[in-house]
Structure formats: structure tokens, C-alpha cells
Specification:
Mean pLDDT: 79
Structural class: mainly beta
Shape: elongated
Number of helices: 6
Radius of gyration: 40 Å
Strand content: over 45%
């Protein structure tokens, strides 16, 4: 700390040290000239109150006046005592008055040199003159600049007492580190308690040496040792057309300890309504970190504003006139440690689906989301074994009030292991049957919902005798109905690997077999009641379904190289990876399996009977239809071998990719009654000029259509003309990032101190890097979907642009815009202007249109200590705070 300075120079404890000093051998006679250019030094051994050896020296001379008990140190005078050091052009020690004086001296040109510099450990400060009484431990310092935490105190006179507390007169308190600060708080009197706080009497703010009327009767600036302390959070003031005047984000921060910090904030509006929030950030180094927050909202929607919102189809029209709601959020993330379990939580629970629309604790994406989810998970890999397990609790909430729970969701798995090693415990010898592997996974879940689905949504639209045809809602207080409405299931999956084999030297053959089985707590049996045109359903308490399939794949790689040997291009290489695979899966709709029940459900208009299949399981029954399909794929890679730039030997080359991947995929189902050939998909991705990323995809249908636009089972290739397939949909995405250099990440050492949650305000950027002179990101997206029947084709054609440019090393302009090329209008745009004012920041953000339209102008002190010293002017279209 600053004034720890004068310190324990008390080590020269009064007269005992003086007597010792008097008896010490003199390296210079008392009459030694002051300008002698040599180095003298004396050492005092510990005695009395002195705890360790005192070393002091002077470049010119040391003059002892034994009679008056005064020591003079001239020229680069130094005193060292433990971790404390004092340097000055001149130091005078007077043992008669128990005072120590350190000053600078003028050189031949009249300029002061050797300004007293005090250091104790990592702390240091300088002053023009220091007077210190090492008996009373009081001092007086003239024209000193001291640092207290992030702040600097410029004082004409400073006094220090025995408790290391300092008292300043005619002071300037600032966070600007210049000798002549851009701004400061001018106060006649200031008291500083090191590593605790700085207090002042009446003060006013001075900017650019111009006094302002801004001030108060007293000031309090905390400077804790760990840079964290409890304190008041000053609210920001503003006006909204919908809510009137408001005070926002005012409250109190409570630093409980080095691991936990709590923020209590709120908003209040002149037209009614308020928000209350509590946020707890916690962190334990090398273990975990997280945040738990709770907020309560009373929302009052002005009726005139609601009517206007309905007329303009604004989002506020969906909100009620008044509303009370609450929300809880919890995020917990551990540090991954080998062999240890991992507990994570991501909880978002709201008392009302509309809570996110009005809460001051949610972001723009939260307010526009149709649903939100919660999960709590514990997972662990069992060391020295192939086993792992996961236990999860899940919850989801829809905007219509539907709540779904999975309590719990349990998974147990075994990674692929060699059957030969597992059964024989022998080392493989290379035989083909030693390649067989087995993997297993189990998933068990207890699913519950507050919605009882209507019978019409379950059984092909037919009602059930004695059951509700429409959905019904269960109160959360009715635990019995919630449990009865729940579904319990367990799924077993077996992955059987049959190895990889070389065929004809160049082909890789990979056969496979899979089997899965699911246990359910409900199985239905049906009977059709023709009088009521409804189903009679009998429910069993247990059901079992299973399915299996088999297949094999064959692949190879083909290389082709063309030697060009041109000026730059040496060769072009084409890499082709063709593959075919066959899969077989039986028809699980066959009565042999008993998974479906076919019923007579009446006659058609011609008197012919109608039969419909009904799944005997509410969920989990395998699909119907026999699959005997041959799939094919072809991927391509094209690259050049070119001479390296700047190479004069002609022996250095580099690879340039022309096409990263171009693939074609499809399948042919031999067992299908019609449309045996599937759609053909194509995709392409590459990088152009090392700057532009290109991704394209397309889907083609190989069948003809009738006059109504419906597909018929006849290939386009069958005529007329040569047309192999019809384009169904296509997409193209181009992105380019034109930056002179990569943005540098700000990395800091890990700390136990929890950081306050960031404010995701759409107007305020988190970090501005003035080192990057400019950046430009360009994107283009095109999507095409062919219409069917009377539906027209649809095209989505958009371009986006964002980046920033530093006009000077202090000015930066950021921009972003999205342009709809079909509608020929800008769909969204934002402009940001930033000014680095050394110890201040200025930001101007403007969104000219859209739901988030508005502007924000902020000028604030950069230091976190004076973060509430800001001037803000903002406006938003809705009046709902976007944080």
C-alpha cells in the first residue's frame, strides 16, 4: 500500500539505534565533502526493537553528527530493512526528534533529481518530500501520488498515522493513470484505509480540468485486497413509451467469500410493474463453477398499448393486462477429471410460459423461444472397464403450458469389446473369427406429462369407448393421476460387429448385425364396436417389442494423378471413394410378430370392407414394411500440387484443395412395391482462395409426375427426352471472412473469484479490440424448394454483412446487416460506434428497424471501480428491457 512506506523505518528504533549508529565505525570523516563520488555504506546489527539487519548507503557520502544525533545520506541514498526500501537524493535521520526526512535535490540545471521512492514488497510510491516520525509512526508527505486498488490519489499534503491510515488534503481521486488525469474527483479531504476503502468529504467531478456540478456530500470507494467487496449497485435511468420512466438494475452486491458472490437487483416503472432478481455466482478452482438465479416479475400491460399492439400485430399483444410470475435458473459445470464422475445442471423453470417475455432476467432469444428445457445429469466412466452409466432428470415446458418430465432417464453402456478375448481370455492370433465384437447399451426412462392425450390422436383418429376424445390437463397437485398418465420403458441395444475383411486386395468388406428390444408398461388389444364406430381397448401392464437387421458394406479408394508440370501447377490428383452396402430388415407389421392388430372398421361407399392396422403399443413399435435395400455412395476429392511461393529451387511444393468433398448418395429397395429407387442427394463443400467457404446441397427425384403434380411410378429416363431426375430442393451457402489477422483471445489466470454474470444487451458489445484495423464477414444463402400440385416454388435468398473498421487507433465502427434479395429489403441492421477515451469509453449503438429497434448511447469510466459513473441515453421500440 502506498503509505506503508514510511514505514517500518521505525526499525531505526529511537535512541538504541542512534547509540549503535554512533558507535559504528565511520567510513567517512564528518568533514567529508558532499560531492565525493564514492559509495559508502553502514550496517546495523539487530538490537532492541530492530528485527533484522539495517543496510543503508549513499553514492556521495554519509555524514554523521554524533553530538546532535543526525545522519546525512547524500547522493543516491538508500535504506534497506527486510522487504522495505527507501531511495532518495537525500535522506536525513534525526534521532533527537525521532524523525526521518527524504527529499530530492536539484542538479546543475535546476531540475529535481532523486525523487524519494518507497517500496515494500510489491507496493511502491513516490513523493517530493517525506517526513516521518519513527517513534510515533506518523508521517507527512508533500506532493504525492498513491495508488489505492484501481484508483490513484494526487494529494498536496498527506499525513499518516500509526495504523497506516492516510489523510490527504487538496486531493484528486481518479482511475486515470496519467500524471495529468483526464478526469478526477476533487475533494478537500480524503481518508484512505489501505486494502479497505477510500472516504472523502464533499466532492465534485472535474472533466478535462473543467469543474462540473456533479458531486455529493461524501464519497466512499472500496479498495479490498481481493478486488471484491459488497456494495450498492447504482440503477440506470430511462424512459419507455409502454412503461413510463424507470430505474433499472439497481440493488446490492454481496461478496460472501472468495467463492460465492450474490447480486440483488430490481427494476421499477412509473406506469406500474417491477422486477426482482437474485443471482448467485460461485466457483471453486479446479472443481466447478456455476450460477443460481431467481427472479420475480409483476407486469402491468397498459390497455391502450395492448390495443395498439394488436392493431400492429406486435408481440406485446400476446401478453395479459397484468401478470405475476417467477423463474428459476441454475447452471453448474464441473472441471473434467479422469476417473471421476461428472455432475452438470442446466435448469430453466418458469411458473408461466409467458414469463420469459416480461422478465428482466432473460435474453432476446429467451423471449422468442417457443419452449425451454431443463436437465440435471450425472455420468461416469468406470475405470479399467468398458462400462459407463448416466443418470439424468429432464423437464421441458411448451409455450402452450404442456409440461413433460423424465424422472429419471438412466443409461448404461458397454463399448465394443472382442468376443474372442472376453470368452477365451487369450491374445488374438489373427484368425477371422477373432474380429467379432459386441457392444451393449440400456436406456430406461419414466416419462410423465400434465397432458392426457385424447384417444383420437392415438388410434388412427377413431374414438375409444369411455375415453375422452380431446386432450385433458392434469393439475400438478394430483400426483396419482400424473403417475398413472406416465410411461415407463426400457430399451436394450446390441451392436454386433463381424469384423473388416480385405476382398480381392483392394476392397474392404464390413458385415454387421444389430438387435434391439424394448420393454413397455402398456400393451393394447382392440375390438371394433360398429354401433358406436369406436374402439374397445383392453390394456395389459407389460409389453415387449423387438427388431433386428443385418447388412454389409463394400468400399474402396481410387487414386488418379495427372502430371501437369506447368509454371506453378505440378500435378492434379483425383481421389474417389465408391461404396455400396446392403441391408435387410423384415416386415414387423406381419401378424407373426404380433406388434400390430388389423381390424375391420366398416365398409366404404361401394360396400367393400375396410381394414386398418392398429399398433398395440403407444410408442416403440417398429415400422412396417420389408426392407431389402442396396445403398450406394460416391465421394470425390480434387486437389493440386503447386510450387510453394517464394521457392527458387523448384523443389518445395504445397497442396491446394480444389474440391474438399463432392458426394452422391441413394438407395434401391428391392422389396418395395413401388418407388423402389430413393431420392438422389448430392453435396459439395470446398474453400475458394483460402477465404470463401462454399457449401451446396441438392435433392433429386427420379420419377415422373402426372397432370396434378403427383409422382407416379415411372422413371424420367423412360422418356420423353433425356432427363435423369427432377430437382426437389437445393441450397447454397457462401461465407467469407476477410480479416488481416486473427482476433486475440484475452486469457487470464484462473481464479476462485466468481465473475458477475455478463449482460447480454444487444446494444452493448462485450469486448472491442482496437488492434485489428478492420474485419469483414460476408455471407450468402440460397434455398430452393419445388412446389407440388398447386403450391408454387419457394425461394429464400439472403445476404448478410458484418464487421468493423478502426478509423483511427481510438475510433472503431462496427456494422451488421441482413438483406432479403427476394423481398428486396433489409431485414435487420445494426450500427455500433466505439471511442477509446483512455480512461473512459463511449459507445453508440443503433438498430433502425425490427422488433429490437432502438438506440443506446453510453459514456462510462473504464475502471470497474467507477462503473456506475456513466451517462446513458437509450430508447427501445417495445419498452421491454432486453438484457
Amino acid at each position: 500500500m502506498i503509505f506503508l512506506l514510511l514505514v517500518q523505518l521505525a526499525v531505526l528504533s529511537p535512541l538504541k539505534a542512534a547509540a549503535q549508529l554512533t558507535r559504528a565505525p565511520q567510513s567517512r570523516a564528518a568533514a567529508t565533502p558532499q560531492d565525493t563520488v564514492t559509495t559508502d555504506s553502514l550496517r546495523l546489527t539487530p538490537q532492541g526493537d530492530i528485527e533484522t539487519t539495517i543496510k543503508y548507503s549513499a553514492r556521495d557520502s554519509i555524514q554523521l553528527e554524533a553530538d546532535s544525533k543526525v545522519v546525512h545520506l547524500y547522493g543516491d541514498a538508500k535504506i534497506n530493512y527486510g522487504t522495505m526500501k527507501l531511495d532518495a537524493a537525500y535522506i536525513r535521520i534525526d534521532y533527537e526528534t525521532n524523525t526521518l526526512t527524504a527529499t530530492s535535490l536539484p542538479d546543475s540545471s535546476g531540475k529535481d533529481i532523486g525523487v524519494p521512492l518507497f517500496a515494500d514488497g510489491a507496493e511502491s510510491y513516490s513523493a517530493k518530500r517525506i517526513v516521518y516520525n519513527f517513534k510515533t509512526k506518523r508521517g507527512r508527505i508533500a506532493e504525492v501520488v498513491t495508488q489505492q486498488g484501481e484508483g490513484f490519489i494526487h494529494s498536496e499534503i498527506v499525513k499518516k498515522n500509526e495504523h497506516n491510515e492516510i489523510f490527504g488534503f487538496h486531493n484528486k481521486y481518479t482511475t486515470c493513470n496519467l500524471a495529468h488525469p483526464h478526469f478526477y474527483i476533487s475533494a478537500g479531504k480524503i481518508k484512505a484505509i489501505p486494502k479497505d476503502k477510500v472516504m472523502s468529504g464533499p466532492f465534485n467531478l472535474v472533466i478535462g480540468d473543467i469543474p462540473t456540478p456533479l458531486g455529493f456530500l461524501f464519497g466512499l470507494f472500496p479498495t479490498p485486497k481481493n478486488n471484491r467487496s459488497s456494495g450498492v449497485i447504482v440503477p440506470s435511468f430511462g424512459e419507455s413509451s409502454a412503461r413510463g420512466f424507470y430505474l433499472m438494475n439497481g440493488g446490492y452486491y454481496l461478496a460472501l467469500n472468495d467463492y460465492i458472490g450474490t447480486t440483488l437487483t430490481g427494476d421499477i416503472y412509473s406506469l406500474g410493474g417491477y422486477n426482482l432478481r437474485m443471482s448467485n455466482d460461485y466457483r471453486k478452482r479446479y472443481s466447478y463453477q456455476g450460477n443460481l438465479s431467481v427472479d420475480y416479475t409483476y407486469f402491468k400491460n397498459d390497455e391502450a398499448d395492448v390495443e395498439q399492439s394488436r392493431a400492429t400485430n406486435d408481440l406485446r399483444a400476446q401478453l395479459p393486462p397484468t401478470m405475476r410470475s417467477w423463474g428459476v435458473r441454475w447452471n453448474h459445470n464441473p472441471v473434467q477429471k479422469p476417473g471421476k464422475g461428472r455432475f452438470t445442471a442446466n435448469v430453466n423453470i418458469q411458473s408461466d410460459p409467458l414469463h420469459n417475455r416480461i422478465s428482466g432476467n432473460s435474453t432476446v432469444s429467451d423471449r422468442l423461444a417457443a419452449s425451454f428445457n431443463s436437465s440435471i445429469t450425472y455420468q461416469k466412466n468406470i475405470q479399467n472397464s468398458p462400462f459407463n452409466y448416466t443418470v439424468k432428470l429432464r423437464q421441458s415446458q411448451q409455450a402452450n403450458g404442456t409440461m413433460n418430465f423424465v424422472l429419471p432417464d438412466i443409461s448404461f453402456g458397454m463399448t465394443q469389446v472382442s468376443l474372442y478375448e472376453m470368452l477365451t481370455n487369450n491374445v488374438p492370433t489373427g484368425n477371422w473369427y477373432e474380429n467379432f465384437t459386441l457392444g451393449y447399451s440400456l436406456t430406461a426412462a419414466n416419462e410423465m406429462s400434465n397432458i392426457i392425450p385424447g384417444s383420437r390422436s392415438l388410434f388412427n383418429g377413431l374414438p375409444v369407448v369411455g375415453a375422452n376424445t380431446e386432450n385433458d390437463t392434469i393439475s400438478f397437485g394430483d400426483v396419482r393421476r400424473l403417475w398413472e398418465n406416465g410411461r415407463r420403458s426400457a430399451t436394450h441395444n446390441f451392436q454386433i460387429g463381424l469384423g473388416n475383411y480385405k476382398v480381392l486386395k483392394f476392397f474392404n468388406l464390413s458385415p454387421s448385425v444389430s438387435y434391439s428390444e424394448r420393454w413397455l408398461d402398456r400393451k393394447f388389444s382392440f375390438a371394433y364396436n360398429p354401433d358406436l364406430n369406436a374402439l374397445e381397448v383392453d390394456t395389459a401392464k407389460f409389453g415387449r417389442v423387438y427388431e433386428y437387421s443385418a447388412g454389409a458394406s463394400l468400399s474402396t479408394t481410387i487414386y488418379g494423378t495427372v502430371q501437369v508440370r506447368g509454371k506453378r501447377v505440378e500435378a492434379i490428383r483425383h481421389l474417389i471413394r465408391p461404396s455400396i452396402s446392403y441391408s435387410y430388415r423384415p416386415d414387423f407389421g406381419d401378424p407373426f410378430y404380433g406388434f400390430y392388430q388389423t381390424l375391420y372398421v366398416g365398409d366404404d361407399v361401394n360396400g367393400r370392407p375396410i381394414y386398418r392396422p392398429f399398433s398395440r403399443f403407444e410408442s416403440g413399435a417398429p415400422g412396417t414394411g420389408l426392407t431389402s435395400a442396396l445403398s450406394f455412395g460416391l465421394s470425390n476429392n480434387l486437389e493440386m500440387k503447386v510450387k510453394a511461393k517464394g521457392d527458387t529451387t523448384g523443389k518445395q511444393f504445397e497442396k491446394v484443395s480444389l474440391i474438399d468433398n463432392f458426394s452422391i448418395n441413394g438407395s434401391y429397395n428391392f422389396a418395395a412395391e413401388a418407388f423402389k429407387l430413393s431420392n438422389i442427394s448430392m453435396s459439395l463443400n470446398t474453400r475458394i482462395l483460402k477465404v470463401i467457404n462454399l457449401n451446396a446441397n441438392a435433392l433429386f427425384n427420379p420419377y415422373q409426375t402426372d397432370s396434378a403434380g403427383a409422382f407416379v411410378d415411372r422413371y424420367l429416363l423412360s422418356g420423353p427426352g433425356f432427363k435423369p431426375a427432377r430437382l426437389i430442393n437445393a441450397g447454397l451457402n457462401l461465407t467469407a471472412s476477410l480479416n488481416p489477422q486473427s482476433r486475440q483471445n484475452n486469457t487470464t489466470s484462473q481464479s476462485t473469484v466468481p465473475e458477475l454474470g455478463q449482460n447480454p444487451n444487444v446494444f452493448e458489445p462485450d469486448y472491442i479490440d482496437f488492434k485489428i484495423p478492420w474485419s469483414l464477414n460476408i455471407g450468402y444463402t440460397l434455398n430452393f424448394n419445388r412446389g407440388t400440385g398447386a403450391q408454387p416454388n419457394s425461394i429464400n435468398n439472403k445476404a448478410d454483412l458484418n464487421g468493423d473498421v478502426s478509423i483511427t487507433d481510438k475510433w472503431k465502427i462496427g456494422y451488421s446487416a441482413y438483406y432479403d434479395l427476394v423481398a428486396q429489403q433489409i431485414s435487420s441492421a445494426q450500427l455500433n460506434i466505439h471511442r477509446d477515451l483512455h480512461c473512459w469509453d463511449m459507445s453508440i449503438s443503433w438498430i433502425p428497424f425490427g422488433y429490437s429497434r432502438g438506440y443506446n448511447i453510453t459514456i462510462n469510466a473504464r475502471s470497474a471501480l467507477l462503473r456506475d459513473l456513466r451517462l446513458t441515453k437509450r430508447s427501445s421500440a417495445t419498452g421491454i428491457n432486453y438484457r
